[in-house]
Amino acid sequence: MWNYEKRLQYPVNIKKCNPQMAQVIISQFGGPDGELAASMRYLSQRYTMPYNEVAALLTDIGTEELAHMEMISTIVYQLTRNLTPEEIKESGFDKYYVDHTTALWPQAAGGIPFNACEFQSKGDAITDLFEDLAAEQKARTTYDNILRLVHDPDVCDPIRFLRAREIVHFQRFGETNREHCSKSEHTKYNH
Question: What does the domain layout of the chain look like in residue ranges?
């Protein structure tokens, strides 16, 4: 289906551990507007999309979201590797550590585990594309919030890259909605 290159879409090289920061950023792994939900949303929606070009776009963006999930996981891993028991306790990372050590587990910043209810797939082209537009904006807002809280340039740089990709995806879904779905029979008769 695709050729996997064993490298990140954008480099992540964090030099300083910071488990508090990891607890915020993990929301883009398993939170309500995170990369796991985005990839599952788009890869699920593609099957009932009545337009081949739109199904292909959903496949492309869905697999890119998997690459973004890989970047977020790398960021969280690098922020939590080699922690001492003292650092774990002082940072408040102890609650996560008890259940997962420093393994990656999809959850929101508030500790709520990932759930398939985080994404929607309706089988209606217009409904699904509007869901996708909203999802990209919510993810952009989450990245904006992270950038307000995080000041380590090693972390901010890949987060800015991910934020920029959310904007590109939003634009692509908007173009797709205008070009393909506005011409559909569904639109002619129901709008």
Answer: 19-115+124-190
> Where on the phi/psi map is residue 92: left (φ > 0), alpha (ψ -120 to 50), or beta?
left
Angle between helix axes 125-149 and 35-45 (nearest 10 degrees) is 170
Average pLDDT of each block of 10 consecutive residues along the chain (191 residues)? 81 97 97 96 96 95 97 98 95 95 95 90 93 97 98 98 98 91 56 44
CATH number of 19-115+124-190: 1.20.1260.10
**Is-contact 143 71, C-beta < 8 A?**
no
On whether the CB atoms of residues 8 and 70 are closer than 8 A, the answer is yes
Q: Which helix (H) or strand (E) holds 184?
A: none
Q: Name residue 187's amino acid.
A: T
Residue 106: which of 95, 96, 93, 120 has the closest Cα? 96
Question: CB under 8 Å to 104, separation ≥6 — which residues?
Answer: 29, 73, 76, 77
pTM, two decimal places: 0.92
